[in-house]
């Protein structure tokens, strides 16, 4: 049971990653190619489907499967790059605040407090409006809104570790504070940071989806999961097909 | 005495946070490329017209100067005038606040009820497969964020089995004889249950989307705390006295186990309020969040500022209440 719970999501994740990375070779159609005669086709298991379009087409006759695979590339880049950057910024500040204490801690904690008072989604949307749409804007927005998640937890963890005997003994042994921080504190908070990082990657994908959903991310032609959801939603409201939304769920 | 001093220092901290938010949002939205005034005028407007209107909204001055003028206004209850709606920001924002508050509180009520029930049932059934089912349900609900729950709910109850409304706050055909914008509360008070039903049909899906992840968190934490105290002596004593297992959980264990959950609910409630921004957009619900996104798209600087600050006030107010409740409930802090 425990094994199955680990293996099944693992396989699914690998499929998604492979599909995204090798999208240009695997995708059955050009994700941008429109065919107005084939608009809003249902997936293959529904009567009236067009052969070759496994998951059907969207309102402009673009292949949904191919678009999903290409959109996965953007989600993947955002997850890895934004997650890692937010982790670097947040964890560094967190370790500094938690270990050095004093005025460094005061300044960083106050900044975190101010950040936590912003509604995160609204903050991200504001940033994208300021920086202009684009992939790197999303990455920056994710880093700017989510570094606090790392800073808070890592600070608490570094404080707890800093009170341990082995830290005191390292100090007594004549290590400088900087060396203690690198050699003693950092390895001991690393597991916490790693767990947060995996969570953060998931969050980054959602933020990307939300930003594309409100139409503020990549140029509108390039496929993103959020953009496809938005399009599927419009179609629902027009009483049309809902294949986009339905498929998004499984991603 | 110590408590009063703690409260005062906490209030001072809150003030610093709010000023920080005001400064950051003020600067961030003013480096946006594109003149908001030029966007609101028709294409034929002359340079002179643009300059005059820019001056009227004060956008020709430097950012620190603008901030001082704006801050002076805030202290007199004037948050500026919205560029797109041409109405006072304060009126617009306060007009939308009740919609968002009702949605958030309904979601909170659902989350606490559902999460609490799951925790109690899971404790009652501990050691059976039913407990495993509760754990799996909570784990799954937790791993999907509110935004995706919104989509799932739209698909399930708006498209496949259309029993609820998926867009708006109230049916436009209804005549609303209300004096406040707290429609849900006022419809109950005025005994207009037909309107209450219509409002709930609109609000149930967005509030569920917000509530499901929180309910899962509550279920997990409360169940954990309950399990810990169920082994303690007073629970065993109550059991030997002949009380039923349900009675032991609800009367003996719950009051002792609830403190960590209360703190967590407070913190998570601010996340829930933040989540309304995108959920309101998803369900075209006419609340603050939806207005905020429109304001960003239209570059309505005074309005963005007002909304962000109102959200910040909401967040800090909730946090403050959590801290005070915690101090009131926890004797160690009260005397500390």
Describe this structure in words.
The complex is a heterodimer of chains A (251) and B (336). Chain A is mostly helical. Chain A is built from ten helices and no strands. Chain A has helices at 2-21, 23-26, 64-100, 102-116, 120-131, 135-162, 165-172, 177-213, 225-237, 243-249. Chain B is globular, with a radius of gyration of 24 Å. The mean pLDDT of chain B is 83. At the A-B interface, α4, α5, α8, α9 and α10 of A face α1, α7, α11, α12 and α13 of B.
Please name the defining characteristics of this protein.
heterodimer, A: 251 residues, mainly alpha, MetI-like fold, elongated, B: 336 residues, 14 helices
Layout of strands and helices, then pairs:
The complex is a heterodimer of chains A (251) and B (336).
Chain A: H1 2-21, H2 23-26, H3 64-100, H4 102-116, H5 120-131, H6 135-162, H7 165-172, H8 177-213, H9 225-237, H10 243-249
Helix pairs in contact in A: 1-3, 3-4, 3-6, 3-8, 4-6, 5-6, 6-8, 7-8, 8-9, 9-10
Chain B: H1 2-30, H2 36-40, H3 47-57, H4 63-75, H5 89-124, H6 129-143, H7 146-160, H8 183-189, H9 193-230, H10 233-240, H11 245-282, H12 288-297, H13 301-329, H14 331-334
Helix pairs in contact in B: 1-13, 5-6, 5-9, 5-11, 5-13, 6-9, 7-9, 7-11, 8-9, 9-11, 10-11, 11-12, 11-13, 12-13
Alpha-beta classification of chain A: mainly alpha
Radius of gyration of chain B: 24 Å
Give the low-confidence spans of chain B: none
CATH class of chain A: Mainly Alpha
Indicate the percent of residues in helices of chain A: over 70%
Structural class of chain B: mainly alpha
Mean pLDDT across residues of chain A: 72
Q: Major sheet of chain B, described briefly?
A: none
Please, how many domains of chain A? 1
Number of helices of chain A: 10
Distance separating the two termini of chain A: 23 Å
Chain pair with largest interface = A-B, 34 and 45 residues
Outline of chain A: elongated
Please state the second-level CATH architecture of chain A. Answer: Orthogonal Bundle
What share of the residues of chain B does DSSP label as strand, in percent?
A: under 5%
> What is the tally of helical segments of chain B?
14
The value of Rg of chain A in angstroms is 23 Å
User: What is the string of helix and strand elements of chain A?
Assistant: HHHHHHHHHH
Oligomer: heterodimer
For the record, what is the CATH homologous superfamily label of chain A?
A: MetI-like
The tally of strands of chain B reads 0
